[in-house]
Amino acid sequence: MAQDQTTDQADEQADEQAGEHFVSFGEQGAQLTYGSYLRLAQLLDSQHLESDPPAHDELLFITIHQVYELWFKQLLHEAAAARDAMSAGRLWWAQHLLQRVHVIERVLVHQIDILETMTPQDFLEFRQRLAPASGFQSVQYRELEFMSGAKDPAYVDRFRGLTEAEQARLRRRLEEPTLWDAFLDVLRQRGLAAGTDEEVGESLRTIAHNREQHADVWAVSEALLQHDELAANWRARHVTMVERMIGSKSGTGGSSGSTYLRSRLPLRYYPLLWELRSEL
Fold first, then answer.
1. pLDDT of 167-197, one tens digit each?
2. What global pTM score does this model have?
3. Phi (first) and psi of residue 94, to 5 degrees
């Protein structure tokens, strides 16, 4: 009898231990729901209109920009991983991650089509409520530019609306290696010069003229160029949308509006990759 009881207790303990690692799919699991996993209660309570009475299109405006920030977060996640993969010599993984970056960036461009279903008159119903908030204040977007290679320390100094945490994030991005820094690591790993711009240009020509030997390096360089091009496409599409909505009016944050945005259009993250085209 005592032996049977000991055996039963051992079986119960084994069942409990197995249960700790058992995943029950379906409603009977009742451990995690779709809503709790995605934090939907908090997410769907994050759209608070400033207009009174409520302007119909303000919800659209808020939602679009919140979605942008979610995609920016994902882009930072992928870009950082691609950078680290290049520095570690894992070019296949870096290229895969950069391809994902490209797809997300195309989504960012297409989201402007949704925003343009709002007419200028509809936007003006609540635009005055936004000041001094502005897209210029998007810290994550600026982080993406810094990580891509367009570091601008003056941004941290001239924008006073940043919290201490946001300032710390931007300063960290200024100190971190960029995607271009990681690509230079790739060149060095392959025994190619990567000191001065002249040396990098010569190495790029070597890669371009020997694609069979340097196929993976060429593919990563093309992936970086595609990232640069898609970022430029977004900036161009964005300024056109702004001009369609508010013309030449100043921005809600006090900037010159479309004039400032157009001044950013010539920006290129990787000028040496673009210059290579003229030298092939």
1. 999 999 999 999 999 999 999 999 999 999 9
2. 0.86
3. -60, -45
Dist CA 276 CA 201 (whole Å): 7
Does the bond joining 132 to the residue before it have cis omega, within 30 degrees of 0? yes
One-letter amino acid at 63 equals T
Residues in contact with 91: Cβ distance below 8 Å, sequence separation at least 6, in sequence order:
85, 186, 216, 217, 219, 220
Secondary structure (3-state) at 205: helix
Is the Cβ–Cβ distance between 61 and 77 less than 8 Å?
no
**How is residue 159 written in tokens?**
């924008």
Look at residues 150, 173, 180, 152 and name the one whose alpha carbon lies nearest to residue 268.
150
Separation CA 237–CA 108 (nearest Å): 10
Longest Cα–Cα distance of the chain, Å, equals 91
Provide DSSP, 60-106.
Answer: HHHHHHHHHHHHHHHHHHHHHHHHHHHHTT-HHHHHHHHHHHHHHHH
* Tokens matching residue 189: 């790993």
pLDDT digits (tens, 9 = 90+) for 81-126: 999 999 999 999 999 999 999 999 999 999 999 999 999 999 999 9
Asked if residues 71 and 146 have their Cβ atoms less than 8 Å apart, the reply is no
Phi, psi of 106 (to 5 degrees): -65, -35
Task: Report helix angle 139-148 to 58-87, nearest 10.
Answer: 30
CB 201 within 8 A of CB 279: yes
* Token pair for 212: 């069979």
Task: Please report where in the chains the tokens 């496409």 appear, as a residue.
Answer: 233
Upper half-sphere CA count for residue 147 (Cβ side, 13 Å): 24
